[in-house]
Amino acid sequence: MNKTDFSIINGFPLNQASLDRLQTAFSLFNAFGSIVGDKSIISGCTVNGSSVTNGTVFIAGELFEFRGGLTQTKVIVKEDVTNLIYKNGNHYPAVKTRYVTFGAGVGAMDWADFKRGFETKGIAALVTRIAALEARPIVGNIPVGLIALWDRPANEIPAGWQEHLPMTGKMAVGFDGTDASFDVVGKTGGAKSKTLTIDEMPEHGHAYSRYKLDQEVSTSGDGVRALNKNNILEPFQTDLKGSGQEFSIMNPYRVVHYIKYVG
């Protein structure tokens, strides 16, 4: 970096050129803001209730003092000018103090766009994670959370996957926002077997026929009575049958593991 030696004796020539060199040296520090990028919070700017503390921000290649206050949606660059009296007795706008604070107007920016940078020593950990990801087999950008079928033993489930226990003993049904039974992801229902109720059975009856008997007639004076039959068939109801046992309503199936990609 540029350097000025103030230790030389016999009087340092503190003139406009010397001061301009100092200002040029200071301006070089603006380049450090480019490490984190435009509209970055370099330091401070901590949220404290409804306010934000003072700090430092970087905007369009320039480091700025941030003067905090009550949080607003917009921030703006302001410039305060201080006049100094020169040897000729005139006042000139010599000192310009630029800073950023909450406010509106021409050139105002959204405060939500300002993001805090991170320490560059954290890059090493990121590089390690990226290297680990790149070392994995290419599997076609599998999204984390994907559910798949695994038709092999659980102890052979590949790395990055785990058994999805909520699907144990269940079949999958597609989401249908128009059906109250299927309008929530993760909703469960159904049964392996069913017992019909009377209301669920179709209306029906059972019938049979037997020979209709004539009325009883007396055949002797000893009180013995006999029945004469003819060839007329007469309908009657059968006895009740059935025990109401449950029956399976399972479709043909094959047991597999549901597994979920966890990355």
Task: Summarize, please.
With 263 residues, this protein is mostly beta strands. It has helices spanning 16-27, 123-135, and strands spanning 40-44, 47-48, 51-52, 55-59, 62-67, 69-70, 74-85, 91-102, 109-110, 115-116, 147-150, 161-163, 193-194, 208-213, 217-218, 225-226, 229-236, 247-248, 257-261. A seven-stranded mixed sheet has the order 9-7-8-5-4-1-10, with no helix packed on it. A three-stranded antiparallel sheet has the order 2-3-6, with no helix packed on it.
Total strand segments:
19
- The secondary structure category is mainly beta
Which quaternary structure do these chains form? single chain
Mean pLDDT: 82
Tally of individual domains? 2
Secondary-structure element series: HEEEEEEEEEEHEEEEEEEEE
Q: Beta-strand level of the residues, as a percent range?
A: 25-35%
- The portion of residues assigned to helices is under 10%
Q: How are the strands of the largest sheet arranged?
A: 9-7-8-5-4-1-10
